[in-house]
Amino acid sequence: MTSPTFALTATTGKLSSSILSHILNSSLLPPSSLILCTSTGSPTHPHLSAAVSRGAQVRRADYDDPASLEAAFAGVDRLILVSTPAIALDFNEAPEGQGRERQHYAALEAARKVGVKHVYYTSLAFACGGKSESKAGVMVAHLRTEARLQQLAREGSIQFTSIREGLYSESWPLYFGHWDLGKDNNGRSEVKVAGDGKITWTALSDVALGTALIATDKDSAKWEGCKVTLAASKGGITLAEMAEMVGKRLGREIKFEVVDKEEHVKYYVNQRGMDEPFVRWWIIVIALSFLVSVVTKIALPLFGENNIIAIAHSSSCVLFSSSSSSADDFRYTRLFKVRSRTTLLWTIQESSSS
Ligand SMILES: NC(=O)c1ccc[n+]([C@@H]2O[C@H](COP(=O)([O-])OP(=O)(O)OC[C@H]3O[C@@H](n4cnc5c(N)ncnc54)[C@H](OP(=O)(O)O)[C@@H]3O)[C@@H](O)[C@H]2O)c1
C-alpha cells in the first residue's frame, strides 16, 4: 500500500521542524511522502536538509498568498497546518475573519479546493476538554479556526483533528512579565504580572512528538473531529516559583508582584516601552482569572492521573488513543520519555545564562 502524501506548513519553525524530526527519526513516514511547506519555498533552510536529502519535496506556501497554498497542497492527503505567528492581526479585538484566523482560513480553503482529506491543525490549550470558549485573547483565532474546521467537516469537505498544544516550556519568558532574555538577564530585578497560577509547562519536543504520532496514525479515522489537548499532566509551576528559579540562576532577587490589569498595562507601556495593543492582547493570557480558572481549575483536573489526554506524565510520556464513545476521551496506550519539567528547568538555566 502506498503511503498517503503528507504536507507540513511552517517547516522552518520550531514546532513544525520538531514534528518533522520525530517523523524522520522514528520512521513514521517515508521521507518521499513528505511535502515541506515554507513561506519562501527555499530548500536550503537547515531544518529541512535532512528530509530533503532523503527525498522530501519543498514547496512554497505563504498564508497570505492563496495561489501558493493551492499549488503547495496539490496531491496532498493529510496536512499538518501549523498556526501562524502573525499575532498583530489579532490586536484591537480583530473581528472574525480579520485576526490570525484569516491566514488559517486561506490555507483551509486551498486545502478544500485541491482535495486534502484530513487537516491536523496545531491549536492551543487555552481551552480544554473540547470546549469552544476561552478567556484568552490568544485563543480567539484558534477557536475561530476550529469552528471553520468543524464546518468543513460537517459539509463533508475535509476531516480534521485539532491538536491543542500545551504551553511550551521554552516559551516561559513570554509569560514571565515579557522577560527579554537579551536585556533582562543583565539587570532586571522586577516582574509584574496580572495574575498567577500553576501552569503545566510542556516541552515543545513532547507536543511535537504527540502531534507527529497523531497525524501519522494509520487509523486516521480514529482522530476525525477530535480536539486533543497535549500538555504535561503534572508538575505545574507558578510564575512566583519561576521568579525564584530565575533569581537563583541569576544570583539576584527577582521581585515578583501580581498587579491589577490596568496597572499591568501602564507598567509595560509607560515604563517598559511596549506597544499597548500587544500588551492588552497578551494580558488576557496571564490574567489571574484566566490562569486560575482555565489552567488550574479546568486543566489540572483534566490533566490529572486519569486524564483524558496528555502526553507528559511525571516521569513518563504517554500516547493516547481515542475511545469510540467520545471525541475527547483518550486513554494511554504507550509510554515515552518525558522532558517537560526538565526542559523548563533547563531552558530557564540555559537562557538565563545566555
Ligand atoms: N503552545 C505554545 O506555547 C506556543 C508558543 C508560541 C507560539 N505558538 C504557536 O505555534 C506556532 C508555531 O510556533 P513556533 O514556535 O514553531 O514558531 P516559529 O518558530 O516562530 O515559526 C513560525 C513559522 O511560521 C512561518 N510563517 C510565518 N509567516 C508565514 C506565512 N505568511 N506563511 C507561511 N508560513 C509563515 C515561518 O515560516 P518561514 O520561515 O518560512 O517564514 C516559521 O516557520 C506559532 O506560530 C504560534 O501560533 C504556540
UniProtKB/TrEMBL annotation:
Keyword annotations from UniProtKB, A to Z: Membrane, Transmembrane, Transmembrane helix
Extract the InterPro entries matched here: NAD(P)-bd_dom_sf (IPR036291), NmrA-like (IPR008030), NmrA-type_oxidoreductase (IPR052718)
- Positions of transmembrane segments: 281-300
Say if the entry is tagged with keyword Transmembrane: yes
Tagged with keyword Membrane = yes
List residues of the NmrA-like domain. Answer: 40-265
SUPFAM superfamilies noted in UniProt: NAD(P)-binding Rossmann-fold domains
List where this protein forms a coiled coil: none
What protein name does the entry list? NmrA-like domain-containing protein
The organism named in the record is Lineolata rhizophorae
